[in-house]
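Researcher: Good morning. I'm working through a list of sequences from a screen, and I'd like to move beyond sequence-only analysis. For each chain I'm collecting a predicted structure so we can compare shapes side by side. This is the next one on the list. No need for commentary yet; just the structure.
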Amino acid sequence: MNLTFVVDKGYWDLNLNSHVSLHLEADITPDVGYVVQNNIEHKNFEDLSKQGTFGKARWFNIVKKEYNACRKGVAIIDMTSFTKYELKSANRNIVDFLQMLCANNIDMPIGTVVHTGMSNEHNGYENDCSVIRLGEYHFLLVSSTSQSTRNIKWLKAHVPEDNSIFLLAVTSLYTALNLIGPNAKYLLFELSDENFNDFARMTCQV
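Model: Good morning. Structure tokens for this chain:
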């Protein structure tokens, strides 16, 4: 089922000198209980859904502008629908649990973000996710929207029966905005008094 609704989209130009507000329409699709935008277009554009399967897509120039904003300027990507789970324990049980499930080393310093896969006993891929260490025995797991049901089933299948590990779905509790592009840092400077010069890659600040 596709729906169309009108939204206001604001963006900064490449020089970050002005804020522009456009009246746009978004073509959206419900995805695992969340509404996900397929594309956003100016209301005067022709209907992008009436698209054949041969030749350059009608939305090519729109995607080109979005790509250039990500590569040359700054763009905001709404990732709120991404699956999020909070995992913690009173001791090292949660660390050992994630070390068993994840292909990469999860036992990293607090504030580290580890991109990893989860494999099954046949060396097959069960999940692709990012694991964020918020505390000594406290983690946040983030993965794609479409993996929500699969992820919780896989995690619950391996949680110890002694209830030593706390597992909570927190997708609806957090908004996730991906600020991307070479000018992303400068936009943050305009919005916050924090110094982001030393904000290292694959780390988090809470």
